[in-house]
Amino acid sequence: MGRAPCCDKENVKRGPWSPEEDAKLKDYIEKQGTGGNWIALPHKAGLRRCGKSCRLRWLNYLRPNIRHGDFTEEEDKIIYSLYASIGSRWSVIAAHLQGRTDNDIKNYWNTKLKKKLIASMAPPSHHHLATATSSSPSPSHYNMINSLLPYNPSVSTNQLLTPQGMMMTMMGQQQQQLLYQEDMGSLVNSANSNKFIMSHQEHSQEQSTNNGIMLLSDVRSGSSTTSTVTRVKMEHLDHHHHHEEDERSMSSVVMEDYGMEEIKQLISSSCTSSNNSLWFDENKTEDKFMLYY
DNA sequence: AAGCAGGGCAACCGCGAGAAT
DNA sequence: TATTCTCGCGGTTGCCCTGCT
């Protein structure tokens, strides 16, 4: 049995609100309050609108102290930071920004901030692992990441962001498979570079730890702890002889199309330090990862 | 000046959670 | 306890505006 409609869609007005409707709604709520019942409110207020529409209009435009447009850099940082920590929970983010609505922040993110982030994050747009001589991300790239880092008690930001460090995010299943089959394979097989050792662990419960291992997970559900994970451990074959090469090499996989989840992971991913171990969750097939190394 | 494309944003849709019955 | 209903949320749509050709 389906859900009963919240209002009679045949008899409610839709589309943009007129100044008269705004005035009616504002006047009614200021005098009577919402009464805790949005469904009944439009009838009482003399509006031919769906209750949900009234609620949206009030919350996003009519209630006092709403601010629109002109996000400050400080607000940008807060949004980045919270997005990295909690993802697209716009209402929670909005709660941290006085006078901003979740809808405004969502729109601002989708139309501007995300692009800003991608522009900053995106080195040359190749789908291939770069060659050993490919360019490293620009300093601004790392600066951006610095400002985006999610809370991660186990890893310092310096460790994450040095050009010799690593950054990880998620890519789609296809790319992930591609990475397994081709990119990782080529890396594993690459002779005089770093050695990648990949192993599977069933039902691992290990998470981000102080020794630099990190498990990428859905920050909202935090549900990846019992998932099957694949461990990718990178070891230097010869710590004494590869420093120069390490500095030159910057292998990257860059996606041209970033979805919401990718962006979130892009921000929320962090990385490793001393032993260069990475974890990612195989079961999250929608997830995508990108590896700078 | 007209047509087109892309971006921005207001509003809608559908779902999950929780309250009420 | 099961069912129904409302609220609140995030994702998506579609209109309008602006800039480009």
TrEMBL record:
Keywords: Activator, Developmental protein, DNA-binding, Nucleus, Repeat, Transcription, Transcription regulation. It comes from the Eukaryota. One of its GO terms (cellular component) is nucleus. InterPro entries: Homeodomain-like_sf, Myb_dom, SANT/Myb. Residues 9-62, 63-113 form the Myb-like domain. One of its GO terms (molecular function) is DNA binding. Its main location: nucleus. Signal peptide: none annotated. The keyword Lipid biosynthesis does not apply. SUPFAM superfamilies: Homeodomain-like (SSF46689). Residues 9-62, 63-117 form the HTH myb-type domain. It is found in: Nucleus. The keyword tRNA processing does not apply. Gene3D superfamilies: Homeodomain-like. This is Uncharacterized protein.
